[in-house]
Write a structure and sequence with these properties.
The protein is built from eleven helices and eleven strands. The chain has a seven-stranded mixed beta sheet with strand order 1-11-10-9-2-5-6, with helices on both faces. Strands 3-4 form a two-stranded antiparallel ribbon. It has a two-stranded antiparallel ribbon with strand order 7-8. Pfam families: UMPH-1.
């Protein structure tokens, strides 16, 4: 005779196991060899909670350079928004050399896993202040920026169109928080035809005089490690972000993790970090800091899959 054990007597561990199986987040992209996670179960639980809350509770906050844009293509570095300005239409050869020297001096400091954020801060301020001073000296013309972007080799990550378009279709706000040059950043998105009304940008913007010549940079300098200040100061003023306690955050630097600090009463903040360079030296710190780490992955496959699951509740192709 077969006895059917009533549900009430089923061991608690069995019930939990069945519940986990029923609510398990099935996202094939998370099994890619380029994906690292410290706590997969926590990631799955967070994605499921965000999915239950729906698109109306979601906002996306992302860095731009080396996050939404590719880090490299065919073995060559893809230019950042500052690098795009290295165009003879805009700056002299001498200025370009000085900017490259600054990059070679300060970029190793920015990604040095042995230094604390506090140690890096003054170096980042020095770096971008010097770069901006050099650019101002060049008297860059506003009407040449679009041509410089067009002539550059900048590339958004594979899958970018689905990323931008899907968020726009679902009216999910996208806040791009960049230490780059906002004028160039916007031009890149415009030329790729994905600058939608749901997109908001916080960045370093050029200030042009009445003749359209660069005379200064607007407001306080934004660099990799002071985004928290900017998030607290500026994000509060964006009404489109109000009442959206679930956040998908994308970045390529540990400094990007503070971009969501301006979110009012956050419930779930799922972080995805692109580990583009010096993988072995930085892997441990990234895995300990981001929920999902993407190692040398030049696509938006994982963010897109996560968004599909959160917004639609399933992983459709």
């Amino acid at each position: 005779m077969v006895y059917h054990v009533p549900w009430i007597y089923t061991p608690v561990r069995t019930i939990l196991a069945i519940w986990h199986q029923l609510t398990k987040t099935e996202i094939p992209e998370l099994t890619k060899c380029s994906v690292l996670m410290r706590e997969r179960s926590r990631v799955e639980e967070m994605i499921h909670a965000m999915q239950r809350a729906g698109a109306g509770s979601l906002q996306v906050i992302s860095d731009f350079d080396m996050t939404l844009t590719r880090f490299a293509h065919n073995g060559r570095r893809v230019p950042t928004t500052h690098n795009i300005l290295d165009n003879r239409l805009l700056i002299s050869e001498d200025c370009a050399k000085k900017m490259k020297d600054l990059l070679n001096t300060y970029y190793p400091v920015e990604i040095d896993a042995s230094r604390s954020t506090e140690e890096k801060l003054p170096h980042m301020v020095d770096w971008w202040t010097k770069v901006h001073e050099l650019l101002i000296q060049q008297k860059i013309r506003k009407d040449l920026l679009a041509q410089a972007v067009k002539e550059s080799t900048v590339m958004l990550r594979d899958g970018y169109k689905e990323f931008f378009d899907h968020l726009a279709e679902q009216q999910v706000p996208l806040l791009i928080f960049s230490a780059g040059v906002g004028d160039i950043l916007e031009e890149v998105i415009q030329q790729n035809r994905v600058f939608h009304p749901n997109t908001h940008v916080i960045s370093n913007y050029m200030d042009f005089d009445h003749a359209g010549v660069l005379q200064a940079f607007k407001g306080q300098l934004i660099h990799t490690f002071n985004k928290r200040e900017g998030a607290l100061r500026r994000a509060a003023g964006l009404t489109a972000l109000q009442g959206r306690p679930n956040v998908l955050l994308l970045g390529d630097s540990l400094g990007d993790l503070t971009m969501a600090d301006g979110v009012s009463e956050p419930e779930n903040v799922l972080t995805i970090g692109f580990l583009n360079d010096q993988v072995e030296q930085r892997k441990e710190s990234y895995v300990n800091s981001f929920d999902i780490v993407l190692v040398k992955d030049e696509t938006m496959d994982v963010p897109n899959a996560v968004l599909r699951h959160i917004i639609s509740g399933r992983d459709r192709k």
